[in-house]
Design goal:
alpha+beta; three-stranded antiparallel beta sheet; 4 helices; elongated
Length: 185
């Protein structure tokens, strides 16, 4: 289980917020700053929807996930994992490195295997995301987010479906699994 800032829950930092806001305002041809907070909320919603559609975290952030001890490999449910930096008990005590194994495969799937039978519940801290920041996102993903945020702003009082171009832009980046995979050991 991933904590509160997992896939689909996006809060932009100040720099990314400003860049995304400029992009959406350009599409909408909005010059005033009276609705900037609303526009940013729509950008964050659109990024969250993008993450759900893509099956990937868009802008990198640190996350935490809990795992029950298991001798077999367990996959971290967020991807792509960039680094696993913390392996500890629920109480915050670091696990002895001899009591676990971690891995990140070439697809960006993160894995953990808890060998220590005394471990009750293990908490992993890891960095996850396609890009470090807004400019680092692939252009089609950024453009789809901008289009969807603009649509949400314009159609906020109606029930118009989002433009089909959004999913067309995102589809090449979609990460899907036909079957649940095992650790590639």
């Amino acid at each position: 289980m991933i904590d509160g800032n997992g896939p689909g829950v996006v809060t932009l930092g100040a720099g990314d917020r400003a860049l995304a806001l400029v992009a959406v305002k350009a599409v909408l041809r909005v010059a005033s700053d009276t609705e900037d907070d609303l526009l940013v909320a729509f950008v964050e919603t659109a990024l969250g929807l993008a993450e759900r559609f893509l099956g990937q975290v868009t802008i990198a952030r640190t996350m935490r996930a809990c795992f029950a001890p298991a001798r077999g490999w367990q996959r971290i449910s967020a991807a792509p994992v960039r680094a696993i930096s913390v392996v500890e008990t629920r109480a915050g005590t670091p696990l002895d490195p001899a009591g676990y194994a971690i891995d990140i495969d070439p697809r960006g799937d993160g894995w953990v295997r808890v060998i220590d039978p005394a471990a009750d519940e293990v908490v992993l801290g890891f960095d996850c995301g396609l890009a470090a920041d807004w400019p680092g996102l692939p252009g089609p993903i950024r453009q789809g987010v901008v289009l969807l945020a603009a649509h949400l702003f314009v159609a906020r009082e109606g029930s118009t479906p989002p433009p089909l171009a959004v999913t067309a832009l995102w589809r090449p980046f979609r990460r899907i699994a036909v079957i649940a995979g095992d650790h590639p050991c």
